[in-house]
Amino acid sequence: MGKFNYWKSTKKLIPQFINTFISDIFSDYTGCLNIETIGDTMIECHLRMGDIDLFPTLDILNGIIHVYNNNKYDWNINLKDVYFFPIWFSKNEIYDEYNTEFQQLAKDKLDELLINNDNIYEFNFDNPTLSGPSSEKRIMWFTCGDKQYGELFKDSICKTLFD
Questions:
Q1: What is the pLDDT of residue 85?
Q2: pTM for the complete prediction?
């Protein structure tokens, strides 16, 4: 169906098969490369930064600027785990299609709850034209550093919006 409950970004060594893939395919490429994996399986590869702007540090972006300026950079960055939680709804639950009226209702109910929350790193309400799985629509997302907190907060958001 193409829908997920959350994703987690963690700092770990790059598996050898990805290093081999990069050296074989991208040996002359000097831009950003976003490779997404599940376990030891590559599931996506994009010529873009990915979601690094969601991390609660500017060190990564500074590193990218250094690389693009052909400077060396110490990539030994202290990264916290980041959990990305999407808020989905069935297109038939609220409206036949996601629309700006529902988006405004969600913002009105949730903005203060999200803005004043020290546990939330980032959040955003999706553009109504964003595509998604055929029977679902993502209305918004948020990131935090604690999975259990994120799951409870996601449940709270869903109750606020859909009950």
A1: 95
A2: 0.77
Q: Indicate if 109 and 124 belong to the same structural domain.
A: yes
Do residues 44 and 124 make contact, with C-beta atoms less than 8 angstroms apart?
no
The number of beta carbons lying within 10 Å of the beta carbon of residue 98 is 22
Tokens matching residue 133:
């799985």
Angle at the Cα of 130 from the Cα atoms of 100 and 152, rounded to 5 degrees:
80
Domain that holds residue 85: 1-6+51-163
Return the closest-CA partner of residue 143 out of 114, 124, 121, 158. Answer: 121
99: confidence class by pLDDT, cuts 50, 70, 90: low
Mark whether 12 and 29 lie in a shared domain: yes
Instruction: Check whether residue 92 and residue 144 sit in a common domain.
Output: yes
Over residues 31-83, the pLDDT tens digits come to 888 888 887 889 889 998 877 777 777 888 888 888 888 888 888 888 888 89
